[in-house]
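Retry 2 of 3 after timeout on previous attempt. Resubmitting structure tokens to design endpoint.
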């Protein structure tokens, strides 16, 4: 799912993407037809600043969609399912795949600019990217640190016992600049300092997979897990767990809104927690079946968009 201004795009297992107007909560068009689109599940998508959309699928293809009509250019380079795509303000995109590679794309010339390959021997499940730093995690528990300017990795660590589920680059723009990774089998959160590249925290926080990691403006990290819990880690107090929040089911996605943590759960509900007290303030059923998989907050923090297993997107307004 990708949000660009008031334009929302969701990708689906039916091979298509759907475009919505968030302001009017109306469907605009489907990005799929006989000539253009994916041949398998859509796995990830991300907007460019000019309104174009980059989508990825289990068919190993990337589709670069026009901002206004149902037409795309196909970008080929991967040999396995693509797990994630990201784009930046310079019309550069990066894709990660089960073929153990990341590819940087020039989306203006619609060509691959650089292939990052080496340390990963199994499927890359997640990555994050800021400026010239890319950090990726794979199914074997390997975390690779890449320098885009040099086109190669400069550090590789195995800090998880099993697959890496999440990679997040965190910065408070002052003192803390951390690389956060979460594990599937080990329920562990690891933190590397970006300045020293050293491991500063690695602890099993959950008895299930770490599915999502978010941060607040008050120097706290929140981890959501399949064990139906959310842990709050205080960075100022030496990475101490300051509170635990209980969910109704496995936590698949979280977002931060004001001083609130909103969690999307496996039973189709969203739960809203007070960040200071850890108290669950209210819950709301948003899926008619299955789990809440994706959530986005509009730039003005007035709306929350949720999507999941029931193939619909729901827009909620904050009072």
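Retry 2 succeeded. Sequence:
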């Amino acid at each position: 799912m990708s949000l660009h201004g008031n334009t929302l795009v969701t990708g689906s297992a039916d091979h298509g993407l759907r475009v919505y107007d968030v302001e009017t909560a109306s469907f605009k068009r489907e990005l799929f037809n006989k000539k253009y689109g994916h041949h398998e599940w859509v796995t990830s998508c991300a907007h460019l600043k000019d309104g174009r959309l980059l989508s990825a699928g289990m068919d190993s293809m990337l589709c670069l969609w026009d901002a206004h009509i149902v037409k795309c250019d196909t970008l080929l380079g991967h040999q396995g399912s693509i797990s994630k795509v990201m784009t930046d303000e310079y019309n550069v995109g990066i894709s990660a795949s089960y073929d153990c590679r990341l590819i940087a794309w020039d989306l203006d010339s619609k060509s691959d600019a650089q292939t990052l390959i080496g340390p990963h021997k199994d499927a890359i499940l997640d990555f994050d990217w800021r400026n010239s730093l890319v950090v990726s995690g794979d199914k074997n528990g390997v975390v690779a640190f890449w320098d885009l300017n040099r086109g190669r990795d400069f550090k590789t660590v195995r800090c998880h016992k099993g697959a890496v589920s999440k990679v997040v680059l965190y910065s408070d723009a002052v003192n803390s600049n951390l690389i956060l990774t979460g594990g599937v089998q080990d329920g562990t959160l690891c933190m590397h300092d970006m300045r020293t590249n050293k491991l500063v925290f690695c602890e099993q926080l959950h008895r299930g997979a770490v599915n999502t990691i978010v941060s607040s403006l008050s120097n706290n990290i929140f981890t959501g897990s399949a064990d139906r819990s959310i842990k709050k880690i205080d960075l100022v107090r030496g990475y101490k767990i300051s509170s635990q929040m209980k969910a109704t089911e496995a936590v698949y996605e979280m977002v931060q809104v004001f001083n609130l943590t909103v969690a999307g759960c496996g039973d189709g509900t969203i739960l809203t927690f007070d960040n200071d007290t850890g108290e669950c303030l209210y819950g709301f059923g948003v899926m008619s079946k299955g789990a809440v998989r994706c959530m986005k907050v509009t730039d003005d923090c007035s709306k929350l968009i949720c999507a999941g297993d029931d193939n619909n997107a729901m827009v909620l307004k904050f009072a």
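Attempt log closed. The two ends are 24 Å apart (CA to CA).
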